[in-house]
Amino acid sequence: MRRIPATMAAVAFALAPVLAFAQSMEVPDQTIGKAGAALHDVAKLQQKYQGEMNSASPEQKKSLSERANAEAVEAIQSHGISVQEYSNVIHTAQNNPDLKQRLLAAARQGD
Q1: Which of 13-17, 26-30, 46-50 comes out lowest in average pLDDT?
Q2: Given CA atoms 93, 47, 80, 19 in this order, what sign does their dihedral have?
Q3: Mean pLDDT, the chain, as a whole number?
Q4: Are the beta carbons of 35 and 89 closer than 8 angstroms?
Q5: Which residues of 33-47 are buried (b: 16+ CB within 10 A; e: fewer)?
Q6: Residue 9 predicted with pLDDT over 80
Q7: Are 43 and 107 in contact (CB under 8 A)?
Q8: Which residues of 63-80 are buried (b: 16+ CB within 10 A; e: fewer)?
Q9: Which residue has the higher pLDDT, 9 or 77?
Q10: Reduced to 3 states, what is the DSSP secondary structure of residue 65?
């Protein structure tokens, strides 16, 4: 089983402002499933663009970043979740170990 990189959440924060949620917030299983599937896709996009970004000029990096963000938004929305909802789940999972484990389990189902 592949391990999902911890840095993939960075893409989520670049996409939309994050609302602060309480640590104990209950996130429905359906939302976790959608966010996990989106997280899986966003992680794949990050891997796809990482090598290109490392060897790109500053001008190319801007273009690649814009393209990667657009593709990430598309990937998230294709799972029936808004970018805001996705960002909220990611943010909440950072402070809630149980939610984080459930989210990563949902993301791994895409492997």
Answers
A1: 13-17
A2: positive
A3: 81
A4: yes
A5: bbbbbbbbbbbebbe
A6: no
A7: yes
A8: eeeeebbebbbebbeebe
A9: 77
A10: helix
- Lookup: tokens for 13: 């924060």
pTM of the model as a whole: 0.74
Q: Which pair of structure tokens corresponds to residue 11?
A: 């893409």
CA distance 2 to 8: 14
**Rounded-to-integer distance, Cα 110 and Cα 42, Å:** 11
Residue 51's identity, in one-letter code, is: G
Angle subtended at Cα 84 by Cα 30 and Cα 63, rounded to the nearest 5 degrees: 120
- Provide the 3-class DSSP secondary structure of residue 5: coil
State how far the Cα of 41 lies from the Cα of 111, in Å rounded to an integer.
Answer: 10
Please state, in angstroms and rounded to a whole number, the distance separating the CA atoms of residues 108 and 106: 5
Phi-psi region of 104 (alpha: psi -120 to 50; beta: other; left: phi over 0): alpha
